Amino acid sequence: MALGTLLIRADASAEIGTGHVMRCVALAQAWQHAGGRVVFALAESTPSILERLRSEGFASESIAALAGSQRDARRTAALALANAVRWVVADGYRFGHNYQHAIIDSGLHLLCIDDNGEAGEYCADLVLNQNLHAREPLYSNRDARTRLLLGPAFILLRREFEAWRQWEREIGFAANRILIAMGGSDPRNLNSVVLRALQSIPDNELQVRIATGGSNPRVDQLRRAAETCRGKIQLDVDANMPELMAWADLAIAGAGATCWEMCLLSLPALLIDVAGNQAEIAASLEKASVAVHLGNWREVTAEIIAAEIEKLRRSRERRQLMSQSARSLADGCGAQRVLREILRHEAHAARIGDFSPGKHTCGLVRAQ
């Protein structure tokens, strides 16, 4: 079956971050590798994100509408039909039931990437929740046609992580190399808070690297801070993330998609939920002994961060447990599994000769 063109509807900005687009890049890469073409449709974007999509060979189109509105849905459907698209992927918290219906009613297949069941009601062909806390009851209010892809087996990791799938981490007696990874745009300016925490630690052995994206409006401010802060601090903008994660002994990060990248690299982490929908992700990873959940960004202080860094830096045994637990969750094959489920679902629809709602088999898909 020829793949044709995949349309991905996701947004990025300094305010909402870049995570939705960046994890969709992983699926887009898998689609492209299998011979298909990819178009990203964005109502919000940044120059850095558009350049990244261009460098990957993906087309990008602007959606002149309020994200998640019916106007957005109509324009997205029209763009899909103009590009002979069969599948639309929607990743974001604004694509609710009415939006999904508009896409489906246009004769298109739809995959929704969702983290917490926030849409309430679902009618997409496939719903993907790659998180550890993903459970079927989150999506009990769904059409009979909707199938669920749940859990870390479906983690979307970009192809730059493929070379690291067999890499093994060595856990040292002290964690002196610290990675700060608060997202591509860091909308809460948490990089500065973490830097203050590290400044308060009197250890000349510390080496710090800050990973951020070109979408961060405070890059110049961070660069100046790195130059003036005591100790060895380096700012990395749009850097190779697996290399940075392999370099680090310990990370302080936002509880978004970066969590799963760190799992593949077996990197112990302290997590801050930057948005309300990240709290469940961070809590579930702490329960699984993968990370330490520091709490909500409004409550976490530099003093709290510094204290937890010191505890974890000095406990090799705890970091070993976290590293082993993290690696067991991610194998780097999630994008290929999602692609396989898309093709399987389409083949099933073709066999029964009907693409209309209500005539597809529902169910929970277990990774194979």
Explain what this protein looks like in three dimensions:
The chain is an alpha/beta fold. Helices cover 36% and strands 19% of the residues. It has helices at residues 19-33, 47-55, 70-82, 97-105, 190-199, 219-228, 241-247, 258-264, 279-287, 302-313, 316-327, 334-352; strands at residues 5-10, 37-42, 59-62, 87-91, 109-113, 126-129, 147-150, 177-181, 207-212, 232-237, 250-254, 269-273, 291-296, 363-365. Helix 8 links the parallel strand 11 and strand 12.
Label this structure with key terms.
14 strands; eight-stranded parallel beta sheet; 368 residues; six-stranded parallel beta sheet; alpha/beta
| Unreliable spans | 354-362
Q: What is the gyration radius calculated from CA atoms?
A: 21 Å
Amino-to-carboxy terminus distance: 21 Å
Mean pLDDT: 91
Strand content: 15-25%
Q: Give the % helix.
A: 25-40%
What is the helix/strand order?
EHEHEHEHEEEEHEHEHEHEHEHHHE
How many distinct helices? Answer: 12
Give the spatial strand order of the biggest sheet.
3-2-1-4-5-6-7-14
How would a textbook summarize the main sheet? 8 strands, parallel
List the helices and strands and how they pair.
Elements: E1 5-10, H1 19-33, E2 37-42, H2 47-55, E3 59-62, H3 70-82, E4 87-91, H4 97-105, E5 109-113, E6 126-129, E7 147-150, E8 177-181, H5 190-199, E9 207-212, H6 219-228, E10 232-237, H7 241-247, E11 250-254, H8 258-264, E12 269-273, H9 279-287, E13 291-296, H10 302-313, H11 316-327, H12 334-352, E14 363-365
Parallel strand pairs: 1-2, 1-4, 2-3, 4-5, 5-6, 6-7, 7-14, 8-9, 8-11, 9-10, 11-12, 12-13
